[in-house]
Amino acid sequence: MSQASSPDSSTPPARDFEFIATPGHLVQWIADTEAHLQQTGETRVCLDTEADSLHHYHEKLCLLQVACGGRFALVDPLAIADVSPLLALLDRYELWFHGADYDLTMLRRSYNWEPRLIRDTQIAARLAGARQFGLAALLQNVLGLTICKAPQKADWSRRPLPEHMLSYAVDDVRYLLQVADHFLAILREKNRMAWFEQSCRALQAEVAQRSMAPREDPWRVQGSGRLNPKGLAILKAMWEWREGIAQERDMPCYRIMSNKQMVAYAETFEQGGVMNPPAGWRPKWKKEFHDLVAAVFRQGQASWPQRQKRVKNRMTDSQRDAVDRLCAKRDEIAQSLDLEGSLLGSRSDLELLVVEPASGQPLMPWQDEILRPVLTDIIQPAPSVA
């Protein structure tokens, strides 16, 4: 995010942040900041991250934006391999994000770090009833700040980073606590602080439980379930070819061919249609495309992947009706609370409660408390077995 425009836009704003690219600078900033936080009594700090997934094959963290009691730093993880002193500092305070899911995922993947205690302004805004909860929208609606989002999709791995990108980055944490205070006041007034704290803990737990192991058969992308072995064979070949080119050229896979395009080609292939590569491709890629199609034919049916067995729908008609009624009641309750229905429990959570009531509690305590009368009324207990 770029800083809110000043009355005299011709004069660049003075830097009120430090760009940190050496371990010594980081250690000194941490020491000064720790002393500042102790002196001011501030208990909250803010963190955001920038990565380069839109520009490179291997996604990596490129910037850590930190705000601590009015002190701002942009830490360069491409230049500093060990940022553990910074993570240790953040763990000593209440750590605020906006839309923490992606940040937590990247921090865990990069540093095997799971923060001690997180809070999320996006969760706070949604539980307070906000329907627009992107950071730019919140800054406009809460603080009256119009923010430029132009650098959002820029290549954050480039060095040196231009001044407008640095300003954008620091503004991602500059105003977070002001936004937080606005929505915390609403949550306290509505007696929803327990909802907020439970939801933040649930997000942390969800990210921590995700497997970081490579997915088996990653080429089985959305839409591949409707393909027969012939289509699956060309889809797998295209996936593997695309991965090789993307890795060789250090570029995102989607810039070569999207998953949706590959599935469409696979459907054309299995139906015997004409397989022409995209017109904008370089001649080498077009030749390799035709070669891989020919190779799939040469391999023959015996080597083609098989369709995965579909998991039978576990729900009976009565169970499906129960889920539909639960969702309808959930939405009625949510409307009375001025909330989105999904915040009270997703459809998949409600399906689990109906189909596998003994498998565990997918709802948070605050969600269960609100929906318990409805759940008790609609989900009939199973008859006991003598």
What's the gist of this structure?
With 386 residues, this protein is α/β, with parallel strands linked by helices. The protein folds into 3 domains: 17-209, Nucleotidyltransferase, domain 5 (2-Layer Sandwich); 224-303, no CATH class; 317-378, no CATH class. The chain has 14 helices and 6 strands.
Alpha carbon gap, first and last residue: 65 Å
CATH superfamily of the largest domain: Ribonuclease H-like superfamily/Ribonuclease H
What is the average per-residue confidence, as pLDDT, rounded to a whole number? Answer: 92
Beta-strand segment tally? 6
Strand content: 5-15%
Order of helices and strands: EHEEEHEHEHHHHHHHHHHH
Reading side by side through the largest sheet, how are the strands ordered? 1-4-3-2-5-6
Return residue spans where pLDDT drops below 50 for at least 5 consecutive residues: 5-9, 382-386
Helix proportion? 40-55%
Assign an overall shape: flat
- Remind me, CATH topology of the largest domain? Nucleotidyltransferase, domain 5
Please characterize this protein's 3D structure:
With 386 residues, the chain is an alpha/beta fold. The protein folds into three domains: 17-209, 2-Layer Sandwich (Nucleotidyltransferase, domain 5), CATH 3.30.420.10; 224-303, no CATH class; 317-378, no CATH class. The protein has 14 helices and six strands. It has helices spanning 23-40, 84-91, 100-111, 121-127, 135-143, 163-174, 176-189, 193-209, 229-249, 259-270, 283-299, 317-336, 347-355, 365-378, and strands spanning 17-20, 44-51, 61-68, 71-75, 94-97, 118-120. Helix 4 (121-127) runs parallel beside helix 7, helix 9 (229-249) runs antiparallel to helix 11 and helix 12 crosses helix 13 (347-355).
